[in-house]
Amino acid sequence: MAELQEVQITEEKPLLPGQTPEAAKEAELAARILLDQGQTHSVETPYGSVTFTVYGTPKPKRPAILTYHDVGLNYKSCFQPLFQFGDMQEIIQNFVRVHVDAPGMEEGAAVFPLGYQYPSLDQLADMIPCILQYLNFSTIIGVGVGAGAYVLSRYALNHPDTVEGLVLINIDPNAKGWMDWAAHKLTGLTSSISEMILGHLFSQEELSGNSELIQKYRNIITHAPNLDNIELYWNSYNNRRDLNFERGGDITLKCPVMLVVGDQAPHEDAVVECNSKLDPTQTSFLKMADSGGQPQLTQPGKLTEAFKYFLQGMGYMASSCMTRLSRSRTASLTSAASIDGNRSRSRTLSQSSESGTLSSGPPGHTMEVSC
């Protein structure tokens, strides 16, 4: 009988020489904890080293969710409230996640030496293939905010076959014009780098209100030990090239895209303009009320619902329960189709807590839903 038990143990969980079953269980538990905490890696690229953290294990025939953060933040301060939200757990159980930190933005990063040439946003995009090659991942669903949304868009333009979908929050696809450049220079004479970045991340109304969230992020940025590195990332963002999106042209995003912006956010006009330049049959536009400049921080629940519906539209998580947002949105779309069957698939989704109405205007209409 004792021999039979030994055979069962060996077949069920092979042990290392000299390893007891108790030690094997402890090792397995430690491995699970490590997966929950994320595994951080660094890889060398033609433009320097890049750090990224992987959560979960790859799922067969499913892309990885790859995130890229905005200026002044890292992957934790930009995305943790969203990916730790309760309803998001159903999503992250179905996908491996890769959170990329822009060079010098990771926790504990050393300050770059004086005169260091920080990569352009285009070069940051060119680092992503090195990450995917290192992990042996073939396709991704990108989630980017601000500068990170630009980086993922540039990557998708260069490598369309590896991008299955994009969620772009606060994207500005345009290069700065002369007026923008002059205004930026004038602001730099009277404001600190940290204040300029806060003005990029949050609306003036939010900054004036000085909520607990604003105080938290003002403290994070102002006292960041790598503030000099953050300034380099900020300069690269302000020197970005125009993505040159053109509806119906050769330069466009080929995958499904969900554009997201907060109502009255600093980048609202830029995102609206971006929506007008993308393929309406592939693009959804989510304008979130009461979310300020960083909807992934202030409204993680609503954004999670929209993200789940976006994934369902791509053919993933079909067995997932429909959320309140998707039920309301589906009902509105069905009603709209009965009014005008030839209406474009381009959608602007504006969240409201009061009413559910749908305008009967041209493509690019605004949908009000209850959430």
TrEMBL record:
GO annotation, biological process: cell differentiation; nervous system development; Wnt signaling pathway
One protein family per Pfam: Ndr
Gene3D superfamilies: alpha/beta hydrolase
GO cellular component entries: growth cone; perinuclear region of cytoplasm
Keyword Transmembrane: no
Location of region: Disordered: 1-21, 334-371
Keywords associated with the record: Cytoplasm, Developmental protein, Differentiation, Neurogenesis, Wnt signaling pathway
Biased composition (Low complexity): 347-361
Subcellular location: Cell projection, Growth cone; Cytoplasm, Perinuclear region
Function: Contributes to the regulation of the Wnt signaling pathway. Down-regulates CTNNB1-mediated transcriptional activation of target genes. May be involved in neuron differentiation.
Subunit-structure text: Interacts with CTNNB1.
Family the entry assigns: Belongs to the NDRG family.
Full protein name: Protein NDRG2
Organism of origin: Sapajus apella
Lineage, opening ranks: Eukaryota, Metazoa, Chordata, Craniata, Vertebrata
